[in-house]
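Good morning,

Attaching, inline, the C-alpha cells for the sequence recovery test we're adding to the shared suite. The designed sequence is right after.
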C-alpha cells in the first residue's frame, strides 16, 4: 500500500523537513460509508455553491437533511449543487433548494430564513460558511477591503446565527429529530489562532468568529443549543487557488502541513456531518481544527 523509498531508520525527525513528497507514503483518501444520521433535519449552509460549503451541503443532504443552499452569485453553480446533492441515485437523500442572499445584509438574511421556514418549516442546523478574502499589505489595506471582509466573515455569521438561535429557542427540542434544539457550525480557520501577514482583515474576522462562537455557545447551552467552529487549514478550493495550483506552490504549501497533503472539501464535510449529528451531542464551544497538523508549528519539526 505504501511507497516509502527511504531506508528504514534513516529519516530522523531533524530531516523530515527536507524529505521530498515523493519519498513519503503515497496518499490514500478516505472511503467512508454514508450514514443517515441527519434524517428529518433542516439545514442551512451559507456560501454553498463553491468549495467547502458545496461539499458540506451535499454531505448534509446525503446524510438525510433537507438543505437550503445559500449563495451570493453563481446561479448555475448553485443549481449544480442541488443536482449533486439530490440526484445521485439515492432516494433517501434530503431535499435541496437554492436561495440567493448576501449574508452581510440584515434584510436579506431575514428573508432567507422566512423562505426556509416557508419551504421546510424550521431549522435544525446552520453551517455559517460564507467567507471571502480581500488581501493587501496592512498599510495599503483600504477601509472598503476591511469592511467587506468583516461584513461577510464576521457580521454575516452574527446575522445568520442570531436568526437560527431565535428559531431554536422558539421551537425547542424535538426528541424524535435530535437531542439538541439546534446546532450551529461556524466555518472559521486556522487563522483564528495563526497570525497572517498580508491578511489582517481575514485573520481579525476569524479571530472574532472564535470568541463570538464561544460566547454564543455559553449563552445558549442551557437551551440545548450547540455552537461550535470548524477551523480548516489549507483546503483545495477557489479561495486559495494560487497556493496549490502549480507544483512549486503546492510544494511550498506542504512545508506548512505535517500530514503532507492538502485538505479536500470532503475532509471538512465529513466532520460537519458528525458535529451536527447527535453523535456529537455534549460537544459545544469547541474549535475543531481540521488542518493536517498546520497548527502544530511545523517550523519547529526540525528542532527550533
Ligand atoms: P470559496 O470561495 O470556494 O467559497 C466561498 C463561498 O462564500 C462562495 O459560495 C461564495 O459565493 C460565498 N460568499 C461570499 N460572499 C458571500 C456573501 N456576502 N453572501 C453569501 N455568500 C457569500 O471558498 P471556501 O474555501 O470554500 O471558503 C468557505 C469558508 O471556509 C470561508 O469562510 C473561508 O474563510 C473558510 N476557510 C477556507 C479555507 C481554505 O483553505 N479553502 C481555509 C480556512 C477557512
Amino acid at each position: 500500500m505504501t511507497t516509502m523509498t527511504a531506508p528504514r531508520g534513516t529519516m530522523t525527525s531533524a530531516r523530515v523537513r527536507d524529505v521530498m513528497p515523493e519519498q513519503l507514503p503515497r496518499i490514500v483518501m478516505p472511503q467512508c460509508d454514508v450514514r443517515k444520521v441527519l434524517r428529518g433535519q433542516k439545514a442551512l449552509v451559507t456560501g454553498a455553491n463553491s468549495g467547502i460549503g458545496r461539499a458540506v451541503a451535499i454531505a448534509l443532504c446525503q446524510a438525510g437533511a433537507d438543505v437550503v443552499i445559500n449563495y451570493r452569485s453563481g446561479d448555475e453553480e448553485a443549481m449544480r449543487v442541488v443536482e449533486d446533492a439530490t440526484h445521485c441515485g439515492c432516494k433517501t437523500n434530503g431535499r435541496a433548494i437554492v436561495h440567493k442572499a448576501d449574508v452581510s445584509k440584515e434584510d436579506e438574511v431575514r428573508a432567507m430564513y422566512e423562505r426556509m421556514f416557508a419551504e421546510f418549516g424550521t431549522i435544525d442546523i446552520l453551517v455559517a460558511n460564507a467567507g471571502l478574502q480581500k488581501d493587501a499589505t496592512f498599510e495599503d489595506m483600504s477601509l472598503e477591503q476591511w469592511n467587506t471582509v468583516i461584513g461577510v466573515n464576521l457580521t454575516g455569521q452574527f446575522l445568520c446565527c442570531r436568526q437560527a438561535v431565535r428559531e431554536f429557542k422558539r421551537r425547542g427540542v424535538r426528541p424524535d429529530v435530535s437531542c439538541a434544539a439546534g446546532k450551529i457550525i461556524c466555518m472559521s480557520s486556522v487563522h483564528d489562532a495563526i497570525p497572517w501577514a498580508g491578511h489582517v482583515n481575514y485573520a481579525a474576522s476569524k479571530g472574532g468568529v472564535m470568541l463570538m462562537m464561544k460566547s454564543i455557545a455559553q449563552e445558549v447551552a442551557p437551551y440545548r443549543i450547540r455552537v461550535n467552529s470548524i477551523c480548516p487549514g489549507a483546503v483545495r478550493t477557489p479561495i486559495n487557488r494560487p497556493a496549490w495550483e502549480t507544483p512549486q506552490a503546492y510544494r511550498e504549501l506542504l512545508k506548512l502541513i505535517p500530514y503532507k497533503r492538502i485538505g479536500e472539501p470532503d475532509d471538512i464535510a465529513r466532520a460537519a456531518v458528525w458535529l451536527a449529528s447527535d453523535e456529537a451531542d455534549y460537544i459545544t464551544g469547541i474549535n475543531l481544527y481540521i488542518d493536517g497538523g498546520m497548527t502544530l508549528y511545523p517550523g519547529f519539526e526540525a528542532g527550533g
